[in-house]
Amino acid sequence: MGEHSIEVTDSVVPGPHGGVPIRQYVDPGHPRPAAHVVWVHGGGFIRGSLELPESDQVARALAAEGIATTAVGYRLVRPSLSRAAHTADNRRARSRNRFPVPLDDVVAVVRQVQEQHPEGVILGGASAGACLSAGAVMRLVADGDAPLLGTFFTYGFFHARLPKGPCEDRPRSRGHRRYSHSAALLDILNRIYVGDPAVLRDPTAFAGGHDLSGFPPSLLLDADRDTMRASGGQFGRELVAAGVETDYSVMAGTAHAFLNRPLDPAFRPAIDHISEWVRARSLIDPQ
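The structure assignment produced for this chain is given below.
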């Protein structure tokens, strides 16, 4: 089906911190699998929106494959580097959207979509959105919510600190990402997200390194030349060790955030891989 046939609807889901914007994508002329996808964009916890190609174009592409998709406009952390931010009042204001606020937004959307789609929900995320999605799974499992049919993650970051990893997972970022995605800067972003360093150990903030036995079947697609691949590869191994059905692969020749570039040669193969995997999961009863 062509993109012109996709119906796009904006609405707001109630959440503990106020309404959470969502955008739903459906191709009414395309037979759909049972599962409904909830999709969470990346952006280092501090950037991105429902207009980001990684949100909008990915959701449109999935809908065109017959996979109804809800994109989540979670609240972004708004760090301030000004001197005024060091006062107690400004610290409180500055931390308003830190953990667990973005996570709470994602969980609120997943729960509403599950109520509306008892046939099953699959949760997916990219980069920081993959971290939020993994944290949401940890929260849902801990709270005894209805299980998800599956989860899928693209070039995700799952650990409080970047794992060293084996040789095949050593950093391969190139260009400006050699600096913007350095281990030191990624660790800084994580600390900005949580605010309190003690929260780095919370399994709902960073699922990596914790008990993952409650995870549903999971798909992980990593970028080849990507520092964060060390976290994605390690998380994949942790899922396997926890007995979770795991499909992990690295897309050769790719750089981080290839789903944010619809003209990237990897965009279409990644959508095809995800779509095929979602269809297969849709045939499985979550109970």
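Interim note for the steering committee: Strands lie at 7-13, 20-26, 36-40, 69-72, 121-126, 150-154, 218-225, 246-255. The mean pLDDT is 89.
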